[in-house]
Design a protein that fits this description.
The protein is an alpha/beta fold and 274 residues long. It contains seven helices and 16 strands. The longest helix is centred in the N-terminal third of the chain and has 18 residues.
Amino acid sequence: MVFGAVKSPAPTTEELIDAATILIAHALNRAKKPVIAWSGGKDSQVMLHLVRRVRADVPVFQLRGFADPQKHAFADEQIKSLGLNVIEPTPIGRDVVAKGDHVEIIEEYRLDDQVALYFPIEPEPDHRPGPGSHCAVEKLNQPCDGEPLGADCVFVGARADDVDPVYGAVPLEHDTVETNGVTVVYPLKDWTEANIWEASELLNVPQNKARYERKDMDANADYFPMCVECLKAGQGDSLLCPKLNEPVFRLGNDLDLARWREDWRNTFINIRKE
C-alpha cells in the first residue's frame, strides 16, 4: 500500500476571479498613482477588466514597439470604446538579447528612480527581411530620454506558467512584490490559459479575434516584421543588408548576447530562481 499527500483541487476560474479582485482592491486602496501595464493581448485584457471593475479610472501604460495601424487596431478600438487614459512613455534605454537565432530588442522604462519595466520587441516568426522590414539597429539608436513615470503601483498580466522565447520558463514567485516604494501586482499569477478564456466568457471581456481565432500575424502586436540579421553571429565581418541591399557590419560577432541574457534575467525581481 502506498500513501501520499492528497492533492488540492485546482481553483475554479470563479475563485481565481474573486481572489484577483480582492488582491487588486487591496493594492488600489494603498496606491496613490497606480498604472496598468496593458498590451491588448488576452491576459492583459482580462487584467484590465478586473482592475476596472474595482476602479475604472486607472491609467494604462502601453508600449507599442513600432507604429503599425494593423498591429494596434484592436488596442485602438479598446482605447476608444473604454475611454482609456493611455500613457505612452519614452524608454530610458535599449539593449539586445538573444537565444540562438532569436534576437530581441528590449526597452527599459522607469516607474521611479530605481524600479524599471522591461519590454521586448520581437521579430515575427519566419519573417523574411526585405526593404519593407523595420530595422533593429535603427530602433536601438532611437533617442532614449524618458523620464520616470512616478507610479507607485503597477499591475502586470504575467502568469507563472508563461514561457519566454529567450528565457524559457519564467515562474513568478509572488503575486505582489514591494520594491523601493513601488508595488508590482500580478493578479493572474496562478491562472492558466484555459482560465483566461473562461474568464473572458464569464466576464464578457472582448478579445482580439483576428489574432486568436484567425491567427492573423498582422493583428499580433507581440511581433513585428523586423530585421535582426546583422545582430546575429555568423561567418565574416559583414553581410548584405536585406533592407538596404548593401554591405553592413555583422555586429553580432562582437556581442556577448548569452551573458547579457543572463544579466537581464537576474534583474527580474519576481522570477523564482531555480
